[in-house]
Specification:
alpha/beta, Rossmann fold, 2 domains, seven-stranded mixed β-sheet, three-stranded antiparallel β-sheet, elongated
């Protein structure tokens, strides 16, 4: 089941991923690998990945370019399929609580006993060891425990959550990096690496890079009064991102006639702007409220002041810049965002497939694993593998 294309960058073509994970972190990891050309077999329970039943677009977004087999891992008869999957794959990933996959017969120890070259990755909330290993949680909890919610994101608001599930996404991205590193070194090991990844630790890793280990909860040293969101005359939000001194000087030169208060010597230095943040932001509020957001961006662009309108994904994909960069793939609900890299002038695989229906590829996967037609029919008849009625 090759996944590469002739007109796209597919450096992982030939790599096979067995994905036992659900929801977002693990599927994001394997989405990255699939976008880069790997073949991904999504192993789902008979009821499907929980994300299939959620109201967001997450399942479709995180599971394109994959194949689905619905396998009842709790059935004793699943062992034969698990054994073939382990032999077939280069990587296996799971996102259950610690101990679950071992009980199901598809933990790292069991899989690597079948195939020592199989990189195994466990991506859990708090890791496979430690007193919190069995604690339940989701993105918000990992963000809170990993230091990601203690500090303000805006000067005039208390700390709050982002619309993006940061812990899930950074954890999934870090897992993809770790898997690629493990693939690179597996020829130097008698048994490939078994990776223990934690969403909580991934958040703390990122938070520590940004804030270190001594920043107090009430600190605003990381915030700048002219690096924030402002409401414009049309009700749209403008993201003004003035941090460096040169951009402040450009803003004053551009808008000083519209808001003479910006020329106040109290705002002339970074320290002065921080000390007078409330007054400065009130001035900016009044100024930006006088014109539509798009007009402000056009005006500020001419003066090299970094600012942009807060847009939806649909608006972003339709922008001239997205078109020029080859980011606009498909229309409407079928639109996708390819992996964000251009390699030697090529985007990654453009001719992708949408997220699969539950179990839609069951027959093809069983054949690729070496099961005969009669063996496959028996697995289906015994309820070990579930396939759609029309298949």
């Amino acid at each position: 089941m090759p996944s590469g294309t002739h007109d796209a960058w597919a450096p992982l073509d030939g790599i096979r991923i067995i994905d036992f994970s659900m929801l977002l972190p693990g599927p994001l990891t394997t989405l990255i690998l699939a976008d880069l050309g790997a073949e991904v077999i999504k192993v789902e329970p008979p009821g499907g990945d929980y994300a299939r039943h959620m109201k967001s677009a997450m399942f479709q977004g995180a599971n394109r370019n994959k194949k689905s087999i619905a396998l009842d891992l709790k059935s004793p008869g699943a062992a034969a399929v698990i054994e073939r999957l382990a032999s077939y794959g280069d990587v296996a990933i799971e996102g259950f609580r610690p101990g679950v996959v071992a009980r199901l017969g598809c933990g790292a120890e069991a899989l690597q006993a079948i195939n020592p070259r199989l990189v195994c990755c466990s991506l859990s909330g708090y890791g496979q060891t430690g007193p919190l290993r069995d604690k339940a949680g989701h993105d918000l909890a990992y963000m809170a425990m990993g230091g990601g919610l203690a500090l303000k994101g805006h000067l005039r608001q208390p700390p709050g959550r982002a619309s993006l599930p940061f812990a899930d996404m950074v954890g999934g991205a870090f897992a993809a990096v770790a898997i690629l590193a493990a693939l690179q070194e597996r020829d130097r090991r008698p048994v490939a690496a078994a990776l223990d990844m934690s969403l909580y630790e991934s958040t703390l890793y990122a938070s520590a890079i940004r804030f270190g280990f001594t920043t107090a909860a009430g600190s605003t040293d990381h915030l700048y009064p002219a690096n924030d969101l402002f409401c414009c005359a049309d009700g749209r939000m403008l993201a003004l991102t003035v941090v460096e001194e040169k951009f402040w000087d450009n803003l004053v030169a551009a808008a000083g006639a519209l808001a003479p208060e910006l020329r106040d010597p109290a705002f002339a230095t970074e320290e002065g702007r921080a000390a007078n943040a409330e007054r400065l932001m009130a001035i900016l509020d009044r100024m930006f409220a006088g014109r539509p957001a798009g007009d402000w961006v056009s005006f500020l662009d001419r003066h090299d002041v970094p600012a942009t309108v807060c847009v939806t994904n649909q608006e972003a994909l339709l922008s001239d810049h997205a078109m020029a960069r080859g980011m606009h793939v498909g229309e409407g609900a079928a639109a996708t965002m390819p992996f964000p890299v251009i390699a030697s002038g090529m985007r990654v695989a453009r001719n992708g497939t949408p997220a699969p229906a539950l179990g839609a590829d069951g027959h093809g996967i069983l054949a690729a694993l070496g099961f005969s037609d009669d063996e496959a029919a028996s697995l289906v008849a015994r309820g070990i593998v579930h396939v759609p009625e029309h298949a």
